[in-house]
């Protein structure tokens, strides 16, 4: 069974930074492109960034130049460095493989709150 454990969220003022971590167990990490997703209240979950096994990255337009995704394959961990945070970045952040299917399980996520 795949387990995903996100951490590193918190409360930060606009312009601040946070670094999220996600530890993944099972085969998911070693065989998958990994992604960071977020879900704000009243909105659908959206992909924020993804990274392939070889380290190629892609970002949502709203976070380009501010967020950086990385992975440590030896530790089965994926990171999201978030700089220049904005109030609109407030959401629960999740990691998972990319793409996902409706049957995929998710972790608890980590709350990021950015105040103006």
Q: If you had to describe this structure to a student in words, what would you say it looks like?
A:
A hairpin with a 5-residue loop joins β5 and β6. By secondary structure, the chain is mostly beta strands. The model has no long low-confidence stretch (mean pLDDT 95). The protein has a six-stranded mixed sheet. It has a four-stranded antiparallel sheet with strand order 1-3-8-7, with no helix packed on it. The chain starts with a strand and ends with a strand. The protein has one helix at 28-31; strands at residues 4-7, 10-13, 18-24, 33-39, 46-51, 57-59, 67-72, 77-82, 91-98, 110-115.
Rg, nearest Å: 13 Å
Order of helices and strands: EEEHEEEEEEE
**What characterizes the major β-sheet?**
6 strands, mixed
The chain-level mean pLDDT equals 95
- How helix-rich are the residues, as a percent range? under 10%
Structural class: mainly beta
User: What is the subunit arrangement here?
Assistant: single chain
Count every helix, treating DSSP H or I runs of 4 or more residues as helices.
1
Report, as a whole number of angstroms, the end-to-end distance. 40 Å
The tally of beta strands, per DSSP, is 10
Shape from CA axes? globular
Strand order of the largest sheet: 2-10-9-4-5-6
Please report which band the strand proportion falls in: under 5%, 5-15%, 15-25%, 25-35%, 35-45% or over 45%.
Answer: over 45%
Low-confidence stretches: none
């Amino acid at each position: 069974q795949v387990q995903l454990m996100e951490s590193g969220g918190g409360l930060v003022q606009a312009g601040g930074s946070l670094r999220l971590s996600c530890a993944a167990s099972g085969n998911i990490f070693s065989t998958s492109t990994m992604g960071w997703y977020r879900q704000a209240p009243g909105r659908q979950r959206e992909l924020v960034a993804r990274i392939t096994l070889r380290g190629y990255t892609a970002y949502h337009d709203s976070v380009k130049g501010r967020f950086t995704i990385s992975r440590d394959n030896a530790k089965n961990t994926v990171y999201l460095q978030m700089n220049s945070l904005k109030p609109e970045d407030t959401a629960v952040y999740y990691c998972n493989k990319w793409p996902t299917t409706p049957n995929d399980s998710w972790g608890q996520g980590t709350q990021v709150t950015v105040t103006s």
